[in-house]
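Forgive a beginner's question, but would it be possible to get a protein, spelled out as residues, together with the matching structure tokens, please?
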Amino acid sequence: MGWDGSARLRRWLATLLLALAAGCATTNGSDPRDPLEGFNRSMYAFNDAFDEAIGKPVANAYKSTLPDPVRGWVRNFFANLGDLFIGFNNLLQGKPADTVNDWARFAFNTIFGVVGINDVASEMGLEKHNEDFGQTFGRWGAASGAYIVWPLLGPSTVRDSAGGLLDAYLDPVRRHEPADARSFAVLLRAVSQRADLLDASRILEEAALDKYIFQRDAYLQRRRGLVYDGNPPRESPSSRARDDARVQAAPAAPAASDRQFDEPAADSTLPGRVSNLYEPRQPANYAAVLAASARVGR
């Protein structure tokens, strides 16, 4: 049976509306960005339990079984497919130079990098970007909307959920036939992404008293930075005061180097321009922020 995109789209939209209705009816979050906090914390607890029971063990087994070069080939292959759609989103955002860069990356890596398993484009100086439909909507003025934690998929917002539907619908991995090969590829990509974040997630465990709040704030901060290509406008004084108070109440992150773990090549989950995404006043460790804001399967 083919991949029924329209049926899946309707199911996603129905789930989104039900979640919003249930959350608004039963919760009164203290943060105005998070009116669904009760629902979100329940989903966060479910995701955390799933990750402890299945996600981390599978990722550890993957990392210990496959040598570094093989894991790098897997990572690069999926990242290369992502460059096609990153370029398309840059085109929609009115950034033709970045579009040419992204599509040139795909061409060079596909042809000279053996269907993308070798990232020759980065060696040639072609920068890896990170764009998706959620960022495209934000680029053209769409507000982020309420923060939402989806089962298995993790943190999102109303805007990013809508963008994620388009990302999933157009994803060549999810549309691949036959179904068995598609399922294997989707699972392999998710395990690869989780394995890349194993060391980062350990830093997250040490850095946050309330992991839910840390993940929420890290995700929203990261997405805001991505929408504005690392140069977001200054926040209002009230928002800044609230964030400063949150920072002062949080424990200090480990004083180790940002590269104290094996940092993978940038892809659709790990942005190549992460160092520009956060204001210097934020002490959050690079690895911890990546672990907090990562979304499975994106």
In short: The chain has a mean pLDDT of 79. The first strand starts at residue 147 and ends at 150. The chain has two domains: 5-65+130-293, 72-129. The two ends are 24 Å apart (CA to CA).
